[in-house]
Amino acid sequence: MCVFLRHLLVVAAVAAAAGCSKQPEARRGSPVLLDVFWQSMGGRALIWSRDADAAIAPSVPAAAIEIDFVFDRRLDGERIEDSDGGVPVSKPNPPVTVGWADAATVMSDPPFAASVFYNSIGAFGPNTSYVLVRPQLVGFPSQTTINFTLDPGGLTSAYGEPMDGPTEISAATAPLSIVSLPTGARTVPTGFLAPVSFSTRVDVAARAALLAPFVHVAAAGTPLGFTLVADPGDRMLLYVAPAACDGKWPAGVLVDMTFDAGFPDAFGRPLPTAVTGNFMTSTTGATTDAGCD
Length: 293
What we know:
By secondary structure, this protein is mainly beta. 10% of the residues lie in helices and 35% in strands.
């Protein structure tokens, strides 16, 4: 009898332990889209919300690194992303796609592409999950309405219930701008490469000949030869360098740089107004101008 009772107690204990370790079931019902955030290196901006009183950003930086679609519960991740040996991989036809009005006729080189992934961790609040869109190369076109199309059949609960929310969401990017360039006539070596940073990618490596006519370099009104050089790791950064034939700016002069209105980003969107900068070269160095005449 005691052996029988001990057996029952062991069975009950095992059952209780199994019950305690069982994970809660996923919530039933359509996943509700709560918010959409535009993530850039400058921070996070809200571009859509279910809350009618939420403060929506009127425009956002074109250099987004991620757009997050936040839901009130977990989704069926297998409908959103694939797996390659345990590593998440974007589907060939993801449930969120990106476009803009003239994307079919005006496109960057290489063309814009985005990957779509899923994260079930409640980073935006208890029980939330989010779908993230990441440009494969950082940067959207400037001053453009970016459209996101959501497929309810790919954004479902664990039980196949389709999302509750709009299937089209848009955000307006800010105009192209120059974020930084040399100013203040600081003294630099005659071989100085002047860094110029933009608000989205300009892809100078493939487009130097197209961009050069919008750039002017001079000393005391006399044009200087120059070349535009790409940064190997940042498509939003270029360098204004002395002409390759000499490799030096004239010594002891103030070098002025002008980027004309119309200078295009990688998608052909223009710089709205001209921007100027300058730097002073050292008194030791080249004695000829950068044109190598």
